[in-house]
Specification:
Elements (H helix, E strand, L loop, with lengths): L2 H8 L27 E2 L13 E5 L5 E7 L9 E8 L9 E9 L16 E9 L3 E9 L10 E8 L6 E7 L13 E11 L32 E11 L11 H8 L3 E4 L6 E9 L2 E7 L9 E5 L2 E4 L8 E3 L2 E6 L5 E7 L9 E6 L6 E5 L3
Antiparallel strand pairs: 1-3, 2-5, 3-4, 4-11, 5-10, 6-9, 6-11, 7-8, 7-10, 12-21, 13-14, 13-20, 14-19, 15-21, 16-17, 16-20, 18-19
Length: 369
């Protein structure tokens, strides 16, 4: 039996091991969800499981909810569930709804895009939906060396049985014309289409070209179906025409990979965020050692009750943070935040930053593509 046949026999089996380092997708088993496991009314650009991002354009009524669930095919820990909270009344030509992941450009140099030797890719995944029909896999290449039109690609797959886990494989033809830059920007964006207007579907499948090639063939009425659901897990993107067994990685490994793009300091009551010193009477600089070197200088946000204290106990000289800004230092594993708080502190006082006992406070560092 050939090696390729061995792979084919094992494809879709959660028990197959070995062959490490093949999967270009991060968090394909939907294990990590730093932002939360149940998000209602997600906006364009929102996340649930890490690295999988929603894209919603020009809809009028649609509300989509996201959940990390344990409804999975055998052997997988989690899936990402999308559900229609408010149905879209009609699909207009300029509307689209999709979700997916961007792979960092410098991780794709071995694909040799822009050359005659560019590599074919195989995308495999498990999917379950309450709405049957033809769905499009949509691919966008940010970098285009020859023409701005040669950036879009699509293939289709069919969900045959409602509410049933099905294993799918998609072969992605290479782009021999346009180089993927060797940098920390967008390389390839892989999206699962849920709704596509005619502006994006009038081109050709399996051809790199204009935006009309982006979501060709999609006809499933998911966004216009009340309470529709869509589950995804076991996502793998790899070099070659033959899909291979899913590369299971530990939770710790996946978390570390995710934290290059997003990190949230949160947890139980009185979660510490970092220590520092008073910059002036009502502002402190807090230094944070990040668990992973981030892709780029992250944007910072915070929520819940985040506090600063200069006392020896959490109830002594505690003030609420009312605003925070921050950036990475020259060391990519260290960041700082400047916390605005009440007056009364002395310049140079040592302080530490923490969440209160409601366990809702968090500080987020975002370097997503």
């Amino acid at each position: 039996m050939s090696r390729a046949r061995d792979f084919a026999d094992l494809a879709g089996s959660a028990d197959a091991g070995g062959l490490t380092g093949r999967n270009l997708v991060i968090n394909g088993a939907m294990q990590v969800a730093q932002r939360g496991t149940d998000i209602n009314g997600v906006a364009n650009g929102g996340f649930c499981t890490d690295r999988f991002k929603m894209r919603i354009a020009n809809t009028d009524n649609l509300v989509v909810n996201l959940d990390q669930t344990t409804d999975t095919p055998d052997g997988y820990p989690n899936s990402l569930k999308l559900s229609v909270g408010t149905v879209e009344s009609a699909l207009a030509s300029d509307e689209y709804v999709s979700f997916g992941q961007v792979v960092e450009a410098q991780n794709l140099q071995h694909l040799k895009y822009g050359t005659s030797g560019a590599e074919t890719l195989s995308l495999s995944f498990w999917v379950k939906s309450s709405v049957t029909g033809t769905y499009a896999i949509s691919i966008f290449q940010q970098d285009a060396s020859s023409s701005p039109d040669r950036r879009y690609y699509s293939k289709t797959y069919t969900i045959s049985s409602a509410n049933t886990w099905e294993y799918k494989t998609i072969t992605i033809s290479p782009n021999t014309d346009d180089v993927i830059n060797n940098d920390n920007g967008q390389g390839l964006r892989i999206d699962w289409t849920l709704g596509a207007g005619s502006n994006y579907t009038s081109g050709s499948n399996d051809t790199w070209g204009a935006i009309t090639n982006w979501m060709v063939g999609h006809n499933a009425s998911w966004i216009t179906t009340s309470s529709a659901t869509f589950f995804l897990t076991g996502v793998q993107l790899e070099v070659g025409e033959q899909d291979t067994p899913f590369e299971h990685r530990s939770f710790g490994d996946e978390l570390q990979r995710c934290q290059r793009y997003f990190h949230r300091t949160t947890g139980s009551t009185y979660t510490p965020h970092g220590g520092g010193a008073v910059f002036d009477a009502d502002t402190s600089d807090i230094h944070v050692h990040l668990p992973q070197s981030m892709r780029t200088s992250p944007s910072l946000s915070f929520g819940g009750n985040v506090r600063v204290s200069r006392g020896s106990a959490l109830t002594t000289d505690v003030v609420a943070v009312t605003n925070a800004t921050g950036t990475s230092s020259s060391n990519p594993c260290v960041a700082w935040l400047r916390a605005d708080h009440g007056s009364g502190y002395n310049t140079g006082d040592a302080v530490y930053c923490f969440s209160d006992n409601a366990a809702t406070g968090h500080v987020s560092y975002d370097a997503e593509l």
